[in-house]
Amino acid sequence: MRRIITFIMAIAVIATASAQVPFNGRAVKNKMVLTPQSEKNSKGFKHARFHKANPKALGNLITSQPEGEAKRYVRSGFAFTVSDATLYATEQTDKTTIVYDEDGSTVYIKDIVNGMSQDFGEAWAVGTLSADGTTITVDLEQTVGWSYQYEVGIRLAWGQTVINEEGTMVSFVRDETVTTATYVVDNEAGTITLQGTNGPTEFQNNIQDFVAQGLTCVYEDDGAWPGYLEWNTVLTEKEIIPAPEIITEQPAGELRNYLRSGGNIYQGWDNTYTTEQSGMADIVFAEDGETVYLRDVVYEVASDVWVKGTLSADGTKITVPLDQYLYWDENEERGMVIKWINSSVATFTDPSTGEVVPIINVGPDFDVTEATYTIDNEAGTITLDGTTGDINAEFPSNFAATGLGVVYNDNFSFCALDFGTTYNEFKLQPAVPADPILYEDSWFDSGEEDGYSCFDFKMLNEDVDGNFIDPAYMAYSIFTDDDVPFTFLADTYSNDLTEDMTDIPYSIYSSGYDFNDSRIYFYRTNAGDNPMFTQRIGIQVHYDVPALTKDGETTIVRNSSNIVYWDLPTAITEIDATPTTTGDNAYYNMMGQRFTGGNLPAGIYIHNGKKIVVK
Asked: Is the model's pTM score more than 0.70?
């Protein structure tokens, strides 16, 4: 059952161009209640989890750009959007793309409702261009998104918001008499205008900011409103900026692996930080003997992107032209480029407190057009030339450096800077991986028969002696009550797996949906090995390295860590639910936590020695 939570208005001023109201829950029929975005994305909801369905099941959901002539448009107008459990009334500022099919009548509009792609993914709506090219008609009821949270499609709709008599609640009313959305095309002005909408054109930060009518979307199963609606929409054509070349596939040639070292300065969300470089830095030497490609050229910025360089005739220098792109945002039409960067430190004395505050000045040196590396074939090292800095210097001097870095191309705002960079050639060889770390306080179980369990752990990229090992050759297995590896079924883990697996490769561990970073999820469909009813969880790391046999054949040498087991919090079979002599009549959930009754959360409980289910 999806919960229904009343949406109470609370007005707050955040800017002259926007208004906001906090709310949560999911809308059912006409009551505005939306599941917070933070339940899907925020670290604040540590264990929020919903099994992600496979959207490929929706054959009518268009997620790839169709063929045809693509034109870019800047959005203007107004909209409701959702972020961090808050409904916002704001101006439209994003861009969108319209593809015109060669048949002359079919058009495809990307992310047709402003903002909804943040929750429901990028998709295209289908429309019809009139014979005279002056109108575009879009049939409503078509699927334009997918809710991974509720495993249901998102459909276009038309409707309006209304306020109750007390002026405390906003509800959504769908207008099912409107079956199409119509846009007027002004080819001379280069604009496309949505017809039939109305709503506020400026925000007074009161409840009237949330009364509007226009194009919106609803959940396909129950018609609930997820909070997105737009009005006064005008799309203005703009020139498409071609996306720069970004090399994401490993180029052809000889791949050599290196361990990197040196210092790094990077811009976090709230401050500037320093760290030491570590891990791998790969280089491909092309067959022409001149071209080289460097992966992860600036530490942990677009680590799967390659930049192009030139190897000198004597094989002692690599020259990398600057201004190569590592990232490009098509919507924002901006990206990140490599630059030579200078960082210096100054001080500022706060006149009110007398405190001396360090100020970091960092920016690109536009006179430098290339970076060079020196190759020492005898030592097996490659060193970035001309850098300065000392990460171990006393603060704030450790932020003074010169080296290769990354900035945004439009305003040259700082992202990261490498200095003292040295690559040491890495020889792949068998090794016994270090034992993984289990975070025992991370265990979570939803307590529902069709729910999930999860826990956190860490795989160390080192062997038992503390030496680095290549994560590309690492994998892990999970165990429950015995020493038999747990099998992850492809049908259950369809977002990450195409076949049943007992060994999960590091690549999935680090970038998967159900195997993400350091967390693993179990679902109730794993009947028989259901972790909800197990006594312990174990994890073992494997390091599988190719090696040559005496016959010159290639074989895989596997070394494994110990199985690190952890006894789970009090399991159902360990709960003593017998009433005490004082007759406490308590309830116990699957974690052994005690409840005294009343409004119990949904889940399975032991009460007076019997299992009960609360829905």
From this structure: no
